[in-house]
Design goal:
Blueprint lengths: L62 E9 L4 E15 L4 E3 L5 E4 L6 E10 L2 E21 L2 E8 L8 E7 L6 E3 L4 E8 L1 H4 E4 L5 E5 L14 E12 L4 E5 L12 E5 L5 E4 L2 E4 L1 H10 L4 E9 L4 E9 L9 E11 L2 E11 L2 E12 L5 E4 L17 E12 L2 E14 L1 E11 L2 E9 L2 E2 L21 E4 L13 E8 L9 E8 L5 E6 L9 E5 L2 E4 L10 E5 L2 E4 L8 E4 L6 E6 L2 E5 L2 H11 L6 E11 L4 E11 L2
Parallel strand pairs: 1-10, 5-13, 7-12, 16-19, 22-25, 23-25, 29-31, 37-41, 38-41
Antiparallel strand pairs: 1-5, 2-3, 2-4, 2-6, 6-7, 6-8, 6-9, 11-12, 13-14, 13-18, 14-15, 16-17, 18-19, 20-21, 20-24, 21-22, 24-25, 26-27, 26-30, 27-28, 27-29, 30-31, 32-35, 32-40, 33-34, 35-36, 38-39, 40-41
């Protein structure tokens, strides 16, 4: 994704700002005796007759649609809007509402995961389009501006602030969503904030220019961990599962349907502040009883059509149930006082909200442990600078400028932390990194004072020492971008500064390509368009618009690539390509079909305004292998 904190990516004046777009991906999975397929599939007429989504007695005549939300990485620290409704339209014109209740959603919360938000009965049939209604009147939107949270307002391309908007959803003609009686499908809504907005940091508040681009797909392009939340309905120890009423977004009431959560002997539980593992945790959940709040993280096995939890929080361990909670990254520590930046607070007396800074006090009685290791209680030194945390306690100061959470008798759950930067050197058992960011925050906001055994050994972000014992470093070299995930070493015990669990090198990092022509667009943006590739014309790039590839922390200006680049289609994974012309969107699975349609569309009079793509960039061949490409035309 493109980040506004990089000099090369500073937003330009509104009249020349690049118009990028919203993406919404839909994916569907059906049981072995049914499925989703092309629009040529016929749904028998008798299957559509008896299902009434509002009448529980007809549930057996319906299909079940699981609705989930996710987001792509971007510049937004918080993107809270009200989702009023999300409806689907069948090919006979019938519309079905899939979101039982309006929901206030922070889309920035879904960068690293997907969340189930409803499970609704849907009449069988072929669904071809839909509409999502967003209400921006009470939006709470913040972006990263020079390391600080800055409030932003979303406007359309004419500069008008958004209020309530209806955004049309379209599905590819060859990949309609087909619902069948008694079978389940999954619908994942992906709001790609980075591709949807261009930021102007020079205004107060910051201006986020949006030009919606909404499509639908029946298979996921990317997969993430999934979260499900809601009160407990029942537990089946023999079947190793429990059932909940879905209640997402920290809501305290409402019912959005039921979901079974499967568990294993390795599932990590925390029930009412006590840690368990495996069946012992499931029994504790059973003892807690019906109505107990739960929150689970896990994975969806599409082939087996089941969600399996790796982590379960229940009862008082659920943030905001009977204690206050904060989640974010530790940017500084002084004694037993932590400074949390990019904080989301979940309080007992209101729903979650964003506040950039929160001070947290911990102590000897604070229960501290790493996610995945509930039986290994740690002392307070375990929490160091950079650590991603979920902390429960009591908010003792609610002054927005001085929020303080007392966790001296609370709990700290430490989650794997993601680093980004460039490799300085590789030595046996260690990689030294010049850090660019921790999480989604630039490295300059982190104060590493006290992380070492002495001031001389405090962590140095320009030469951050990552222990790599047991990790494969054969493809990692000095000078290359890298992403690492793991845990900072205990406070006061560096070096090493960090223990890596996973490493992702340059070749594996996803590349994002952005090209902007002028606001009037270009009628000749490409030197070549064909089934074998698309070659952008460097002479057509607008000087004050984006024309670069971003790979992790590295930004490559397209003008610095000798001979330019060639965009080709990916052939080893799921793909989707699209051309937007006003409200009309044409979607393609095959890159060749997409390229031919694009060549026909750009007839010398029609102008292209922007291109955005995801894939992999081969430096040696200057090929961008794209699994997703969007071209936005000037209407």
């Amino acid at each position: 994704m493109f980040l506004a904190d990089l000099t090369q990516w500073r937003p330009r004046p509104l009249e020349t700002a690049l118009r990028l777009f919203v993406l919404i991906f839909f994916s569907a999975f059906l049981s072995a005796c049914g499925g989703s397929g092309s629009s040529s599939t016929v749904v028998p007429e008798q299957e559509t007759a008896s299902c009434n989504p509002n009448d529980a007695s007809t549930a057996d005549e319906c299909g079940v649609l699981y609705l989930a939300l996710t987001d792509a990485d971007g510049d937004f620290l918080s993107y809270v809007v009200d989702v009023v409704s999300l409806s689907l339209e069948r090919d006979d014109g019938t519309t079905i509402e899939t979101l039982p209740n309006a929901a206030r959603i922070d889309f920035a919360d879904y960068v690293e995961l997907t969340e189930f938000v409803s499970a609704v009965n849907v009449p069988p049939g072929t669904y071809v389009s839909g509409t999502i209604r967003l209400d921006y009147s009470m939006a709470e939107i913040f972006v990263d501006s020079n390391g600080e949270a800055a409030e932003a307002v979303v406007v359309d391309d004419s500069g008008t602030s958004l209020d309530q908007v209806d955004l049309r959803i379209r599905l590819p003609e060859r990949d309609r969503l087909i619902m069948r009686r008694g079978l389940a499908s999954l619908l994942v809504v992906d709001f790609d904030l980075a591709a949807s907005h261009t930021l102007d940091l020079t205004t107060t508040p910051v201006t986020a220019i949006t030009e919606p681009f909404i499509v639908a797909d029946i298979e996921p392009v990317d997969e993430k961990d999934i979260r499900v939340r809601g009160p407990l309905v029942s537990v089946s120890i023999p079947d190793s599962l429990y059932t909940i009423e879905l209640r997402p977004f920290h809501h305290r009431d409402g019912e959005n349907g039921r979901v079974d959560v499967h568990v294993t002997a390795e599932t990590d539980y925390e029930v009412d502040g006590i840690a368990y593992l495996g069946e012992e945790g499931l029994r504790a959940l059973d003892t807690a009883g019906r109505g107990t709040p739960t929150r689970a993280l896990g994975t969806l096995n599409v082939a087996e059509r089941r969600f399996t939890a790796t982590e379960v929080l229940a009862g008082s361990s659920v943030p905001g149930f009977d204690s206050d909670a904060v989640k974010g990254h530790v940017i500084a520590r002084s004694g037993e006082e932590l400074t949390i930046r990019g904080a989301t607070l979940v309080l007992r007396d209101r729903e979650a909200f964003f506040n950039d800074n929160v001070t947290v006090t911990i102590g000897p009685e604070t229960a501290i442990f790493k996610s995945g290791h509930p039986d290994e209680l740690l002392d307070s030194s375990a929490v160091s600078v950079g650590q991603r945390v979920l902390i429960s306690g009591e908010l003792t100061s609610n002054d927005p400028g001085n929020l303080v959470l007392d966790a001296t008798e609370g709990r700290v759950r430490m989650y794997p932390t993601r680093l980004g930067g460039f490799v300085n050197q590789v030595v046996p058992g260690q990689i030294d990194i010049d850090l660019s960011a921790i999480g989604r925050r630039r490295i300059g906001i982190f104060d590493f004072t006290g992380t070492g055994a002495s001031a001389e050994t405090d962590a140095n972000p320009e030469d951050y020492e990552v222990a790599t014992d047991g990790l494969n470093v054969d493809t990692i070299f000095a000078g290359s971008p890298i992403r690492a995930s793991g845990f900072p070493n205990a406070f006061g015990f560096a070096p090493p500064d960090f223990t890596g669990r996973t490493l992702v090198d340059f070749d594996q990092l996803r590349a994002a390509l952005g090209i902007g022509w002028t606001s009037q667009g270009s009628t000749a943006p490409f030197l070549m368009i064909g089934r074998d590739g698309i070659v952008p014309d460097p002479a057509a790039y607008a000087d004050d618009a984006r024309h670069a590839i971003k790979i992790g922390p590295r930004v490559i200006d397209l003008n610095d690539i000798d001979g330019g680049i060639t965009i080709v289609g990916a052939d080893q994974r799921r793909t989707l390509y699209g051309i937007r012309d006003g409200d009309a969107i044409e979607l393609y699975r095959d890159f060749g079909d997409f390229a031919e349609a694009l060549a026909e569309t750009l007839d010398g009079e029609t102008a292209a305004r922007s291109m955005f793509a995801y894939g992999a960039f081969n430096v040696d061949s200057s090929e961008f292998v794209a699994h997703t490409v969007w071209v936005n035309l000037v209407p």
